[in-house]
Amino acid sequence: MKKIIAAATLFMSVLGYGQVHLGAKAGVNMNKLDGKNFNSDFELGYQLGGFAYYNFSDFLGIQGEVLFNQTNTKITDNYRDIFDNAFKKNKTLNYISVPVLLRLNSEGLITVVAGPQFSFLASGNESVLENGKKLFKKTDFSFIAGAEVNIRPLTIYARYVWGFSDVSDFGAKANSQQIQAGLGLRLF
Question: For 17-57, how does the pLDDT look when each residue is reduced to its tens digit (9 = 90+)?
Fold first, then answer.
């Protein structure tokens, strides 16, 4: 019991010091898979999650997030004959994404963020879930660059995500690209 009280006291003192901040965020996720088997238009999805960041100074900080990302795409017509009976042409992929971002001008009005993102496929929206997962790889590695407008406790953010991993498990290579925008609420 003493260890739990000591850990809680330490956690609260770190939060009280003002260098660690926690919050929640939600927004839109415009996504496309760049590959010949997929429609090249951006499709609308959403994202929900939380973030924590630590400021080394007013200018420099680091931010970690855990996000649920809904990614939508369409398989092109040239695979219709193969997949019509087993799969829908429209695909919804749900990812758990973990970005780790460097924050520049961390406590200013405008903050610039950049860093890697690791995503894990949680599900595909097929009636037979395992068949949907067979079309896509289970992980994705990306790079994020963006900006935030800080109106404490609210944050308005916009970012671009470049996917480096091939996410397709059938046909030609496909990389993800995303435009993300939304609101964050800093709780501490």
Answer: 557 899 999 999 998 776 565 666 778 889 999 999 999 88
Residue 93 to residue 31: CA distance in whole angstroms: 11
Name which CATH class applies to 19-186. mainly beta
Domain coordinates of the chain in residue numbers? 19-186
Reported as type and span, the H/E element at residue 63 is: strand 60-74
What distances in angstroms separate CA 91 from CA 29, 58, 73, 82, 131, one per listed residue?
15, 42, 5, 15, 12
Write the CB contacts of 159 (distance below 8 Å, at least 6 apart in sequence). Answer: 113, 144, 145, 146, 147, 179, 180, 181
Q: CA 112 to CA 105: how far, in whole Å?
A: 7
Instruction: Determine the Cα–Cα distance for residues 183 and 188; give it in Å rounded to an integer.
Output: 16
For residues 51 and 117, what is the distance between their CA atoms, to the nearest angstrom? 13
Helices within 98-162 (DSSP H only)? 129-134
Q: Under 8 Å CB-to-CB from 4, ≥6 apart: which residues?
A: none
Bridge partners of 21, per DSSP, are: 53
Tell me the pLDDT tens digit for each residue of 54-79: 998 888 999 999 999 887 766 655 55
Question: pTM of this prediction?
Answer: 0.74
CA distance 7 to 13: 10
